[in-house]
Input
Amino acid sequence: MNIAIAQSGGPTCAINASLIGAFKQGLLSERTDAIFGSINGIEGMIGDELINLKSIIRTNEDMELLRQTPSTMLGSCRYKLPVFKDAPEVYEKILHTLEVHQIKIFLYIGGNDSMDTVVKLSDYLESIGSDIRVIGVPKTIDNDLPITDHTPGFGSAAKYVVATAQEIIRDSSVYSIPSVTIIEIMGRHSGWLAASTCILRANGEEAPHLIYLPETTFSADRFIEDVRREMAKHKAVVVAVSEGVALNTEENGIEDFQSGKEDVFGHKYLSGVGKYLERLVSEKIGCKVRSIELNVMQRCSSHICSKTDIDEAESIGREALRAALDGHTGKMMYFRRVSDVPYAVTIEMTDAVNVANLEKKFPVEWISPEHDQVTDAAISYFLPLIQGEVDIMMRNGMPVHFQRPLQMR
Output
């Protein structure tokens, strides 16, 4: 049988590793033949834009290089698949692509919005009596997918954020004058990534001295009080804040820094909270202050990726194809943690409807009562996910990346 694989949503360091996991399993299985890649996610299935992956991933070196290359080799999309009754022609186009290429398995690598596509497409295919199987492979740096212990991509993003925060701490400590440095970290509704900066305490760091997450209420006045308190103890105060902390837009004037625009899924474009808090500190305290928005670097900094993350991403891609070959459809693969020490997980499956359009928040019991810090209980959760280093291929002193074929650019 023929297979199609697509990647969707925001890029990560590990999404190509999941692609390679499925691709390798397809090569090993006697039951599979052609392995197609859908260009730009589900949009490629709608427009019949497929590429034969065997024609571009030809050698073991290609596979290893792609495995360590960040972002989505097949391209991505943020296309919201409509419900069937509103746009049956869209489903008919997807079915045409599947049938023309004799595809019996479709793997979709993505986040909670992508799992919505898995649910809708698998339900449609079952409703028409088709035996085509659809399986979801989790992916997101936000770590906000329900059911799964963690998501591929998160460990590498957390490792980058933690390492960068540590370097910022070193940089901020060199001057004699008091200062405040605010690090804005991705996290729309859940603060997993910002919270991961607490890992630095495992190496004896005191900073970040303050951590703010979207899971709790945020007060601008309380923030200034917190900063003043920490400045009484530390010359250089470092703050980690999720981009999605709940600001009162009418009271705080955040509209000066955030557009309020939304994507097709109704998600507001964020970023800007760091600049807002920088201005607030400047006006209320008057000390040296700067804000640093890590932005997209959090997603694709493969030079410091987590080996655990990359290995697990490949494994879950492999298991997704195995599940489809065993006859499953409408499922998402997930990690179940068995233990922290020694760290161990199993890969299992759940109905994709249990994940689609849902979000897993950072546990409130791991947030301090004052809502300005993360407790040590979170460290044992985070630490295993950032372990190990990948032996990155280098050329001319720089990491080497797998280059997308010309016909895909």
Summary: The chain has two domains: 2-140+302-356+390-408, 154-300. The radius of gyration is 22 Å. The CA atoms of residues 207 and 238 lie 6 Å apart. The domain at 154-300 is CATH 3.40.50.460 (Rossmann fold).
